[in-house]
Amino acid sequence: MGSGCAPLELSAVPGYAAPREVRQAARQCERRPGRCLSRADGYREGGDYEAAAFVYLHACLANPAMSCWRVGWKHFIGDGAVHDIAFGLYYLGLACEGGNPSACTALGLWWEGDPNEDWRGWLEAGCAGHIELACEALEGAGD
User: Fold this and answer.
1) Distance separating alpha carbons of residues 30 and 143, to the nearest angstrom
2) Which of 55, 120, 12 is nearest to 70 (CA)?
3) Cβ pair 132, 105 in contact under 8 A
4) Residue 27: CB partners within 8 Å, gap ≥ 6?
5) Inter-helix orientation angle 33-45/20-27, to 10°
6) Which of 14, 19, 60, 68 could form a disulfide with 94 if both were Cys (CB 3.0 to 4.6 A apart)?
């Protein structure tokens, strides 16, 4: 990917000392990714963005397609997370590799027209996953 972003250490959110309850929620991610995501969503909805980020990042290891999508998108747009496009693109890339067509579409649209990126491949993956926006972008891109 063109972002040049190295993966962050997933064991911690910088400057955040996770309480026991949050660490326990993160440990569930491998065994029960759905429950882990629900827990992270609950922290986020309750306004505890650091706890949510901590659990989302752990969930990303267990379920990249959905969890990395959430981590990447939240950072990409700055929704309840630090607005960091490079960080967002990195995790959207993991989600796309994990099979999330929405993540592939986001990458394709971001890099569209860049000769150094496989933006067409990402849009094709999004379109194959029935994301209409990706199909429309491919039709409009021409050759």
Assistant:
1) 43
2) 55
3) no
4) 58
5) 140
6) 68
In this structure, the chain runs to a length of 143
Over its length of 143 residues, how does the chain's per-residue pLDDT go in tens digits?
333 333 334 444 556 677 888 888 888 887 887 788 888 888 888 988 888 888 888 888 877 788 888 888 888 888 767 788 888 899 899 999 999 999 999 999 999 989 888 899 999 999 999 999 999 999 987 65
- Distances in whole angstroms, Cα of residue 101 to Cα of each of 8, 74, 104: 23, 16, 5
Q: Number of C-alpha atoms within 13 angstroms, CB side, residue 85?
A: 7
Task: Give the phi and the psi of residue 43 in degrees, each rounded to 5.
Answer: -60, -45
Look at the pTM and tell me if it is higher than 0.85. no
Of 101, 93, 97, 59, the residue nearest 76 (C-alpha): 93
